[in-house]
Design a protein that fits this description.
The complex is a heterodimer.
Chain A: H1 2-10, H2 16-34, H3 43-46, H4 51-92
Helix pairs in contact in A: 1-2
Chain B: E1 4-10, H1 17-31, E2 34-39, E3 49-50, E4 55-56, E5 58-61, H2 68-81, E6 86-89, H3 101-109, E7 114-118, H4 128-145, E8 157-159, H5 161-166, H6 176-186, E9 191-195, H7 202-207, H8 211-227
Parallel strand pairs in B: 1-2, 1-6, 2-5, 7-9
Antiparallel strand pairs in B: 3-4, 6-8, 7-8
Classes of the chains: A mainly alpha, B alpha/beta.
């Protein structure tokens, strides 16, 4: 994933910030994979019993945050579509079409 | 007399549109109201000419389907641009009786800001599924607005000039019905209900809100409430 991210950066399809994010995330996962005992050093400081629980807990936090961001972005996109449709509908409504009943 | 506009959002209603339009136009003429139909991206284009009245109608058309809330919002924007002092909304599937618009006007004349046409204030044949869905809608509305209404999901509503100025229809979908109460409560607008009649047909039952739509609606309302 890190190599793919670097490759995308070289082709100008990712920013250096995105590359840095992927390096930190996948580098961290790789590090924990090679040295699994490191996660057992974290729990005592944050009041969680085992290292695996820390991973699951933070996994949920990250996923929920991701979903929240997606929903917010989707709402913003929907809003833009509505505004565009509305502006066009109002522009096209001809004053002469006013109903006379 | 205050200039009033009836906003009728429609989406793929060509099957019943002429009949609904005919009845609505009749009531509009009787009560001195104007009508704007907002076509929310129907697959089949609606005619801008009413065969019933032999007159052109004001038809605003969304290029894509944005949702009933967005369609009502477009009607609001049109009303503001054209200087109307009141907006009345009515569903385009024929479940409402346009003659009930008079009850909404009476309540607006009495100084109320938002008048909600309620299907549950008089004894009527309403399918159990609709009663249950509406009850849950009422609970969500209460938690978000602090207002208890008997029919939060009603599409027949009336708005005064004060409400028209202050309310912003942010919601694109069915959740506009609940969101409007939350905003009315926020701006301290006077909200009342009037009993209206309703006619459920096989057609209107097909067009209603499903469980999935209801769940999506609640999720959106909660997230929006958290964001504000």
């Amino acid at each position: 994933m890190i190599l793919r991210s670097v490759s995308l950066f070289r082709r100008g399809k990712q920013t250096w910030r995105e590359v840095l994010l992927w390096v930190v995330v996948w580098g961290g996962i790789g590090f924990v994979g090679v040295f699994p005992e490191v996660i057992d050093m974290v729990p005592p400081y944050i009041g969680i019993k085992s290292g695996v629980n820390v991973l699951v807990f933070f996994g949920f936090v990250v996923l929920f945050y991701g979903v929240f961001r997606l929903v917010v972005k989707m709402e913003a996109l929907e809003r833009k579509i509505v505004e565009m449709s509305r502006a066009r509908a109002l522009k096209e409504s001809d004053a002469d079409d006013k109903m006379d009943i | 007399m205050a200039r009033s506009l009836v906003v009728m959002p429609v989406y793929n209603e060509s099957e019943v549109f002429e009949e609904v339009l005919k009845k609505t136009l009749f009531s509009c003429k009787r009560f001195g109201l104007d009508l704007v139909v907002v076509d929310d991206g129907s697959a089949r284009l609606l005619s801008t000419f009413s065969a019933a009245s032999q007159k052109p109608i004001v038809l605003l058309r969304h290029e894509v389907n944005c949702g009933v809330g967005a369609a009502v919002g477009t009607g609001f924007a049109y009303a503001k641009r054209e200087g109307y002092q009141r907006v009345l909304t009515i569903d385009g599937d024929g479940q409402h009786d346009p003659a009930d618009l008079e009850k909404l006007i009476e309540k607006l004349d009495q100084g109320n800001d938002v008048v909600n046409g309620s299907r549950f204030l008089s004894s009527q044949k309403v399918p159990a599924s609709r009663r249950v869905a509406n009850f849950f809608g009422n609970i969500v509305t209460f938690f978000l607005s602090g207002l208890w209404v008997s029919d939060s999901q009603s599409g027949m509503k009336g708005f005064s000039v004060r409400a028209l100025d202050q309310l912003e229809i942010f919601s694109a979908g069915y959740e506009w019905c609940t969101d409007v109460f939350r905003e009315a409560s926020w701006y301290d607008l006077k909200v009342v209900e009037v009993p209206i009649s309703v006619k459920y047909t096989e057609y209107s039952m097909k067009k209603g809100q499903s469980f999935a739509v209801g769940t999506d609606m609640v999720m959106r309302l909660v997230i929006r409430a958290l964001m504000r």
